[in-house]
Amino acid sequence: MQQSLSTLQYYSSVRSVNTKVTESKVAMQNENKILDSQNEISIWQRDAFFNRIRNNEKMGRSLIELFLEDAPILKDTMDNSLEESDFDTLLMAAHKLKGSTKNLGGEKLALTIEEIEQMVKEEKTIELVQVKQKLQYDFEQLCKKLTDVEFS
User: Fold this and answer.
1) Domain for residue 114, yes or no?
2) Whether residue 59 is found in the same domain as residue 120
3) Average pLDDT of each block of 10 consecutive residues along the chain (152 residues)?
4) I need a labelling partner for 99 at 20 to 30 A (CA). Which of 4, 106, 112, 124 fits?
């Protein structure tokens, strides 16, 4: 009876360890899927943007010009407030830039900004510095796409 109980305890602990390992693997797979899905998101969802504005080129041109004027100021505000650890200003600028970005169909940049907002809320300041390069890259890519838009 004693030996059977020990065997049962052994198998129970092995099952518990296997469950934890499986849960960890699933969590890692889910995290990788999120990262992969972010990599699959295009810099600019042109068709979605033009569908949203009913293919109104005049409006499209105006919205793009407005973004290209205002967005660099908001991004600079984000950069400066990050350097100064002014997280309230960082959140306000990030929120404004995210909204403008989403309106234009810049989903990849919007996801990066959401990531920054979440890090600020969770007080992950070290990670914020690391994601700053990603913000810069995504921002430049979107601005380049928008600058290269040709209207008829």
Assistant:
1) yes
2) yes
3) 57 58 49 49 94 96 98 98 95 98 96 96 90 96 96 82
4) 124
User: What distance in Å separates the CA atoms of residue 39 and residue 31, rounded to the nearest whole number?
Assistant: 13
pTM score: 0.73
| Helices then strands, each counted (H, E), the chain | 6, 0
Within a domain: residue 152? Answer: no
Residues 6+ apart with CB under 8 A from 75: 93, 97, 135, 139
Cα–Cα distance for residue pair 136/7, rounded to 1 Å? 57
- The CATH number of whichever domain residue 96 belongs to comes to 1.20.120.160
- If asked whether residues 33 and 85 sit together in one domain, one would say no
CA–CA distances in Å: residue 32 to residues 24, 43, 110, 124: 12, 19, 19, 20
Measured CA distances, 62 to 49, 50, 75, 151 (Å): 13, 12, 20, 12
3-state class percentages of the chain: helix first, strand second, coil last, to nearest 5: 85, 0, 15
